[in-house]
Design goal:
This protein is of the alpha/beta class. It is built from 13 helices and 17 strands. It has 4 domains: 137 residues, Rossmann fold; 97 residues, 2-Layer Sandwich (Beta-Lactamase), CATH 3.30.450.20; 93 residues, Orthogonal Bundle (Helix Hairpins), CATH 1.10.287; 150 residues, Histidine kinase-like ATPase, C-terminal domain (Heat Shock Protein 90, 2-Layer Sandwich), CATH 3.30.565. Helix 10 packs across helix 13. About 3% of the residues have low confidence.
Length: 505
């Protein structure tokens, strides 16, 4: 006896109670659910209630013939699986049964084995039919999803369009007739290298790319294209399926943003160039126009001071003080101009270094003596004498570094400056501290024309803001490190310069 692997629900309609009982027993033997009935009217109600997988029906029933009942059932479900039990006299019954699309026939009296075979075959057909319906529904769902999400076109083996969906027309801004005649055809685009497209498609069976279409109204459309080769059961390409996405608006928006960003960058670059040009012009004019008269002021003030010291007249001391102020101011301005000229040299060209052995302590001591100390600030120099303090460097450039740092300290100190010198076998360290207000912001101090006080209208110290710029440029050139911080000793600013004792190494 064969076993049916899928449990079915079977409605058995038979007028003979003994046959009905025997059929029910056989169906239960193979593990299926059964509902038995001898009345056609009751059978119709049971059908509606239980929705059976298979109906096993006899020709003769109470209140209605079997074929008449089958007609009513087919009206409700044309695909209902049925097995008709025929008497010996077929007559017109068999023709009518064919018209009703009966699935299987059994001769009466029915035997068990043919019944099991009929049920099993219908069971397999029903399973396959359900799978077919499910797959069909899934494919329809996929198609609907694709139609709603993608522009789709089908092409024959030559690339001519054979089908487009509605979204293709909407996204490519073409009507159906224009689309079908290939106004936009990703496989026949005169604006692209189609030989390359077809080479890719034929070798990889798939092509992805961005194409540009120029329509008759001269409007440009930019389309992302994915083309797939579809093969038949013989493995031969029979058609092509193409997904198109019009990205014209997106690309144009991206280009606009990119152009705007480029314009902004160019504007900033031009502004920076103009600013640098203004600064350079200012430096050139300032240095050339003022250096000569300032030298004259200094020379004349020295001459007047020298000769007035020999004369005797009223207010001589006051006049000498004033002349001395002129002299100091002249040196301050000359110092500023010299720094500006150095800034130009450092900014526009490399500098050459003259390396020689210099005495660190004596060099710094001499710089402190030559510095303009208007407010008579006390300057203290301390050195660790346990190690020789000679270093190998460019004496002039090293002197510029210390002089500019000291000049900056003299501008902001209130009463005292302290210089600490330390040397090891390979390195040196010079720290210049003052008791002023310190640095309010160290981030921009090494930039040209920057001072500790960012507000040029309210700052108290004089100067051009190039001293620390020069210091940083020279330190970088000589491989020295420079650090700005707050002095723990005096409470003001602290500037530290350190590096190798021999910059040739």
């Amino acid at each position: 006896m064969q076993t049916i692997t899928h449990k079915l629900k079977i409605l058995i309609c038979e007028a003979d109670v003994r046959v009905l009982s025997r059929l029910e027993s056989w169906v239960q033997t193979i593990g299926e659910e059964s509902v038995i009935v001898d009345d056609a009217i009751v059978a119709l109600e049971l059908f509606k209630e239980h929705n059976p997988d298979i109906i096993l029906i006899a020709q003769e029933l109470k209140n209605m013939g079997g074929l008449e009942l089958l007609e009513k059932i087919k009206e409700i479900n044309p695909n209902q699986a049925t097995i008709l039990m025929l008497s010996v006299d077929y007559g017109d019954v068999f023709k009518h049964a064919i018209d009703l699309q009966v699935d299987r026939y059994l001769n009466k009296p029915v035997e068990a084995q043919p019944l099991f075979q009929a049920i099993e075959s219908l069971s397999q057909e029903k399973i396959l039919y359900k799978e077919f319906i499910a797959q069909k529904r899934t494919l329809e769902d996929y198609k609907n999803a694709i139609d709603l999400s993608f522009s789709v076109s089908r092409h024959d083996i030559e690339g001519n369009i054979t089908y487009v969906n509605n979204l293709f027309c909407r996204t490519t801004k073409t009507d159906y007739s224009d689309a079908m005649r290939g106004v936009i055809n990703p496989l026949h685009n005169s604006n692209e290298n189609m030989e390359l497209v077809w080479d890719i498609l034929k070798s990889d069976a798939i092509y992805r790319g961005r194409q540009v279409f120029k329509l008759e109204d001269e409007k440009e459309r930019i389309v992302d294209v994915t083309a797939v080769a579809l093969k038949n059961e013989m493995g031969v390409v029979s058609e092509y399926l193409v997904f198109s996405d019009d990205v014209t608006d997106i690309v144009h928006a991206a280009r606009k943003i990119k152009d705007q960003e480029l314009d902004i960058r160019l504007e900033k670059l031009n502004h920076a160039r103009e600013l640098n040009s203004v600064k350079d012009s200012f430096l050139t004019i300032f240095t050339h126009e003022l250096k000569t008269p300032l030298n004259s002021i200094i020379n004349f003030s020295e001459y007047i001071s020298k000769h007035l010291a020999k004369e005797e007249f009223k207010k001589k001391e006051s006049l000498l003080n004033q002349v001395n102020e002129i002299n100091i101011s002249g040196y301050l301005m000359l110092d500023m101009i010299t720094n500006l000229m150095e800034a130009i040299k450092l900014k526009d060209s490399n500098i050459s270094l003259k390396i020689e052995e210099i005495e660190l302590f004596k060099t710094i001591q001499l710089i402190t003596q030559l510095s303009v100390n208007v407010n008579n600030i006390e300057i203290e120099i301390n050195i660790n004498e346990a190690v020789n303090s000679n270093i190998f460097s460019d004496e002039n450039r090293f002197g510029q570094i210390i002089a500019n740092i000291l000049s900056n300290a003299l501008k902001y100190a209130t009463s005292k400056i302290k210089i600490e010198i330390e040397c090891s076998e390979d390195t040196f360290r010079v720290e210049i501290m003052d008791d002023g207000k310190g640095f309010s912001d160290t981030r921009q101090l090494f930039n040209l024309f920057e001072q500790s006080d960012a507000n040029s209208l309210t700052r108290e110290a004089t100067g051009t803001g190039v001293g620390l710029y020069i210091v940083k440029q020279l330190c970088d050139r000589m491989s020295y490190n420079i650090e700005l911080s707050k002095s723990d000793v005096l409470g003001g600013a602290a500037v530290i310069v350190k590096g190798k004792r021999d910059i040739r190494e």
